[in-house]
């Protein structure tokens, strides 16, 4: 499940922003980054009515870590 699907399951950007006490642009940022801070996970599970699980949120986080580690490194030639 990607960040956009998680946000949609919570009722959209506005509902998630209100439910987590976050700004609307913050929720949009989570979607772009494909990462949602762990301090909001419990609220997300509640807002989604259980459609989103802690395991799905943890998997999303793990995917981000893997992508970040796999990012190409620019080599500078001497």
TrEMBL record:
The lineage of its organism: Bacteria, Pseudomonadati, Pseudomonadota, Alphaproteobacteria, Acetobacterales. SUPFAM superfamilies: lambda repressor-like DNA-binding domains (SSF47413). It comes from the Bacteria. This is Carph-isopro domain-containing protein. It holds the Pfam family YdaS_toxin. It comes from Roseomonas elaeocarpi.
